[in-house]
Amino acid sequence: MKITKGLLTAALMAATAVSGLVGAGEKVRWAHVYEPSEPYHQWSEWAAQEINKRSNGRFEVEVFPASTLGKEVDLNQGLTLGTIDIIYTGQSFAAQTYGPLALSDAPYVFRDFDHWQKYTRSDLFAEFAEGYRQASGGNVILGDAYYGLRHVTSNKPITTPGDMEGLKIRVPNAPMYRLFPEAAGAHTSPIAFAEVYLALQQGVVDAQENPLPTIKAKKFYEVQQYIDLTGHVTGSNLLVAGGIFWNRLSEEDRELFRSVAQESADRVSADIAKSEAELVEWFRGEGVEVLEVDRAAFRAVTLPLLNGEVATWTQDQFDRLQAIR
């Protein structure tokens, strides 16, 4: 057959098209609710690039920040449906599927940041991850990223549990958040988050509690004289791959995603821990009194209440967490 210039051109175009299809990476959708300026997004983008590079382009991960693909409940549903492949989600959301995961959101279960880190690499955490995998139909926890400590802000100094006796404090409307202040003798009020600043300004409540970045972003320090470093909850978010996505990966590719995801979560944790220390000095520079507190005393009055009716974990699981050294 005579090969004309037209046939040759068509053949080259077809070959190029096939080559492009073969070379195109599998699309992976990674979603979360955090802003593009936050470490959660920045290190997710880094992970996306690393996965593409280490897989020689076989995977193209696109990261969707700031609830682009829906609120947190939607992202969790997306994993189940297979419309989203990887998400960051709070412990409380994952605990709706597998209750024991909520243990790490309970007040004062961690002695310090080091204790939390050791938990994330412990046999107990591995067992929780496996329990979640089974309960969720195959979703796989790839890592746990630090979110920060929750602290009290107030208009009087609080350094011991006795200082909270009779204090009117705003907390989120969930039993877990009432445990710590009520253990110290405070009166809790579940005011809507959008109304907290005004409630503090008008004296409807005397105090509130949140991580330092939230205290800054919502300007609560403008209407509160003290930030009391109670550190009563150690917040973190799970990095989860959906079962539908995970099941189509080879063992080699699973190891790739595990490795990069864990490194990404570790970098998020390091950045947020560093920013917390910097924010303490920032608040002091704004004229806010930032107080160290007797955390051991607060732990002592709170821990005995954690295995009551609000617990979604067993006494044995609680004891194992406390035993981690």
UniProtKB/TrEMBL annotation:
Q: Which InterPro entries match?
A: DctP_fam (IPR018389), TRAP_DctP (IPR004682), TRAP_DctP_sf (IPR038404)
Q: Which residues does UniProt assign to the signal peptide?
A: 1-24
Q: Name one GO biological process term.
A: transmembrane transport
* Top-level taxon in the UniProt lineage: Bacteria
Q: Which GO terms describe its cellular component?
A: outer membrane-bounded periplasmic space
Alphabetized Pfam families for the sequence: DctP
Q: Which UniProt keywords apply?
A: Signal, Transport
Q: Which CDD domains match?
A: PBP2_TRAP_Siap (cd13672)
The record's similarity note reads: Belongs to the bacterial solute-binding protein 7 family.
Q: What is this protein called?
A: ABC transporter substrate-binding protein
